[in-house]
């Protein structure tokens, strides 16, 4: 994706159609590179695959789907289901038809499903390689989806005009991007399915705004809610539970991950909801890593605390020491979202995390601090050499990023020591810290 692409929620454009109409070829044409597998055999694309795409300075997610046959059975039926999921969760749809074949019964059946979805649809007449076939393509008006956009995905004919039209029907990104000030603080509620994320949002809102069910995976799309708490307005984003690795997920789970990842990117603070009565799972750790890598502030909420007995508390303490050692800086709160117990602890924890996330240390104060710790605890000697920190500065806040100029590469253990002392000295509660080291180049001897 282009670095100049706008930030915020990235809209999703799904490419659907019968088998072997050239969907993957069109996807490759839009991307400007060969990503999707293309063969003259129907059904090569069995799964739906998403790609980061950009056109006219705007970013969007392009989803290639398997061939859609309404009368499918077996594996073809599963492909059909995934295509239907793609349509239900996309912001807009490109419906690709083979202009050399014309309208088929299967095409008309797909049109009925598309109409029922209510999503904006562009009709794409593919394999129009010359003006003669362009005239034939206008018979596709009879599908009732408006003017067909004639393209040759193989040769690139008409693809630019198609993308211009697609941008017109895709939703605009929010005006307030993650780096802009003035809007409500953005809080993403993340976690595995069925840990109580929607129940928490409903308690915070004071009413049932989100469907809550004991069936895991009830929430699919992120839900934004403006909620007044503690004398200020917050924008809470309830996200679908992330259950599997994105490459292992299928159907709704795949799109749940896609949408949750964009929600994390949009947020300033993520509230990771864990079920206090269950062991910390591998999936919890994966979500935690996603939040850390995105550089977001973090609050950890142990929900369902009413189900945690003395024995479970003992084992939970051991799990926290073992699994959450890398995020000891994150505020932890114990709550019961179902009853509202200790929900009032959320806002103070969010305030602390945001304050730490936005903390900035002056260059003078930072170098005075670095001078002290280097004098008290110099770097260990390695291979007869002892690297020293010469100078440092904070190059960014939200999240905090520090750059250290040194005489040599620092051990990871020493970097962790510097980070720990930074937290002791300046706070940085609730935020990851990144330390970049730039070693001084050796001077060449002049002859």
TrEMBL record:
List of residues binding GTP 1: 17-24, 64-68, 126-129
The keyword Repeat belongs to this UniProt entry's keyword annotation: yes
One BP annotation, GO: ribosome biogenesis
Highest taxon of source: Bacteria
Residues the entry annotates as binding GTP 2: 191-198, 238-242, 303-306
A Pfam family it matches: KH_dom-like
PANTHER family hit by this protein: GTPASE DER
Function recorded in the entry: GTPase that plays an essential role in the late steps of ribosome biogenesis.
Official protein name in the record: GTPase Der
């Amino acid at each position: 994706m282009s670095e100049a692409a706008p930030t915020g929620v990235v809209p999703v454009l799904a490419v659907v159609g019968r088998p072997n109409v050239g969907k993957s070829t069109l996807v490759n044409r839009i991307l400007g590179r060969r990503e999707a597998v293309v063969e003259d055999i129907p059904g090569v694309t069995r799964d739906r695959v998403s790609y980061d795409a950009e056109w006219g300075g705007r970013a969007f997610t392009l989803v290639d789907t398997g061939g859609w046959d309404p009368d499918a059975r077996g594996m073809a039926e599963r492909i059909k289901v995934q295509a239907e999921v793609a349509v239900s969760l996309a912001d807009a749809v490109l419906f690709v038809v083979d202009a050399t074949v014309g309208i088929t019964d299967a095409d008309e059946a797909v049109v009925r499903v598309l109409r029922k979805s209510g999503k904006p649809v562009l009709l794409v007449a593919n394999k129009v390689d010359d003006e003669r076939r362009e005239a034939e393509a206008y018979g596709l008006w009879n599908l009732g989806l408006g003017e067909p956009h004639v393209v040759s995905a193989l040769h690139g004919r008409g693809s630019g005009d198609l993308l211009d039209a697609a941008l017109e029907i895709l939703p605009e990104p929010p005006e307030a991007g993650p780096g802009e000030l003035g809007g409500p603080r953005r809080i993403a509620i993340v976690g595995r399915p069925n840990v109580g994320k929607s129940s928490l949002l409903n308690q915070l809102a004071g009413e049932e705004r989100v469907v809550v069910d004991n069936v895991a995976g009830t929430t699919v799309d992120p839900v934004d809610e403006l909620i007044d708490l503690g004398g200020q307005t917050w924008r809470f984003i309830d996200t679908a539970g992330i259950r599997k690795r994105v490459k292992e997920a299928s159907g709704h789970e795949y799109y749940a991950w896609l949408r949750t990842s964009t929600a994390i990117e949009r947020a300033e603070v993520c509230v990771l909801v864990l079920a206090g009565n269950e062991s910390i799972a591998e999936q919890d750790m994966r979500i935690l890593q996603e939040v850390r890598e995105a550089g977001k502030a973090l609050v950890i909420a142990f929900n369902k605390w009413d189900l945690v007995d003395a024995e479970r508390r003992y084992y939970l303490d051991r799990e926290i020491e073992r699994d959450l050692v890398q995020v000891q800086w994150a505020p932890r709160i114990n709550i019961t979202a179902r009853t509202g117990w200790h929900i009032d602890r959320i806002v103070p924890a969010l305030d602390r995390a945001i304050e730490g996330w936005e903390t900035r240390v002056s260059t003078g104060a930072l170098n005075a601090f670095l001078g002290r710790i280097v004098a008290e605890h110099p770097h260990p000697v390695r291979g007869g050499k002892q690297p020293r920190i010469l100078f440092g500065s904070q190059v960014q806040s939200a999240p905090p990023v520090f750059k250290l100029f040194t005489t040599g590469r620092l051990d990871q253990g020493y970097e962790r020591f510097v980070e720990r002392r930074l937290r002791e000295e300046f706070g940085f509660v609730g935020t990851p810290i990144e330390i970049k080291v730039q070693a001084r180049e050796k001077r060449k001897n002049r002859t």
